[in-house]
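worker-03 picked up job from queue 'complexes'. Input manifest follows; two sequence lines, order preserved.
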Amino acid sequence: MKFHRTIDDWTLFGSIFDKIGRQFLSTMFGKQLLLFFRTLHSVVSEGRNVHADLRNIIRQIYFTVVEVFPVLFVVAVLTGTVTIVEAMTVMPRVGFSDAFGGLMVVVLVREIGPILTAFLVSGRSGSALTTMIGTMAINSEVDALSTMGVNPIRYLVMPALFGGVISMLLANILFSVCGICGGFGLAKLLVLMSGETLNLNLSWHYLSKSILLSLTATDFVMMILKPVAFGIIIFINACYHGLNIRRDIRQVPKATSRSVVYSFLYVIVIDVLFSLFYIFDYANQMSRII
Amino acid sequence: MDLSQGEALRIENLHFRYAGDDEDVLDGLDLVLGRGETLCIAGASGRGKSLLLRLIAGLDKPASGAFYYFGEHLPLSQHNALEVARRGAELIFQNGALISNLTVRENISMPLYYHHRGTDDEIEHRVNMALDLMRVRDEENKYPHMLSSGLAKRVAIARAWAMDPRLLLMDEPTAGLDNYNRNSLLPLIDNMQALFKTSMILVTHDLLIARELGADLCFLENKRLTQRMKFEEWLTVDLPIAHEMFRNLRDFQLKSTIS
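worker-03 finished. Artifact:
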């Protein structure tokens, strides 16, 4: 029996890992991962214009957060209203009145809020980014950047990624705030309009207190980690699909729809992975109690 | 003496094949361009002229071959557009390829700022020079979609000139231009070459460019470049490619002589 690996054994292992690595990097996800690391590397590579980079990042934030705010506000308020009304009417019937704040946190802060924000951002900014970069690729503008010695990843992808991630963080916070405050306001209005039909015991003091009591440290960490992860995957995916369009204008709409569909898929998959943290967190708390 | 020191570009035994094709588009192509020289490459459509420019600019990767830029060998493993640009080569695309969300002035200044080509004042001064040289000063605040194709080409040349390239590659500089725009563009290119001794390769269907710029002319035929001659010499030689390419021009000249 051999206890020491020879050079040949290592070579065999090396070649297996090499093949697996190459196979992975030839897949779409592998290429997107590569694009992400190239984008990070472009921050420190030569050829930069901080002024133009900042301007492009601010443009991206303006396009993704400011211009999308009216739609985001309406979606957040309506989601908040539905959650509050449903929670206030259904939960007392099943004997879970005390879990009201917990439900609001789960729906608006933890799950539906970040996912709906990600869908909105992906459907608007992600698709627009794929179309813009794809059209630039068709018009040889991306090639022109390279021939001028300007790294297209640095010029196009980096501001989109950083602006996109900051936008996702801001949009997520705005969604939660608008969902809770706006949802409370609209639910209160509905109660007032309905007279005694909707007899909900709803006060801002009760709502805010129950939500604050339900928030855990993990929620605050996830409020940052989730939008960052969603932002990275949405904007890298959008840029990847735009950059891979080659000399055919008919590819632009196809790439745009592919980009949105894959963004939705990635967001859901990442959300499931994040849910595992909550399971571990819950198990950890249980073990401490026991 | 190392002859390569006087060369702007040398390509040896270049092979290129599109993915999925079973035949080379370029098969053993060789090219030498001296510093400050201008070469016009013509030929029938679809023979790979624009592809050759893209290969020189590093936008496409050849199957094999050797590239020397200004006497320096660039291995194929490092052969990409950013590396080629670093060696002073610049490609002007057929459509100008101006960045659509930047104004004319920003299009010219953007790469200069990225490469830190001087202080802000120096860069703005150079941009003004480029705008004046190509006579597009009045259009500096316009966006590319507001420009005619002739103006877009001038801006593209101004942008390339501002970068002070040592080797300028132009893809169909006069394509789609009316006579007025064409005739006003060529002296600008000629002046630029005379003033700054930029080495140039022009891919064109407009054979008269070679005469007007006093440049050498060769053809891409049978996947390689033919011999180089002046325009007037091509009219006198008895070669099949010369007969094919100059047929219309000879008829035109004959008619002009008769009239």
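worker-03 released lock.
Chain A has a mean pLDDT of 86.
Residues 48-289 of chain A form one domain.
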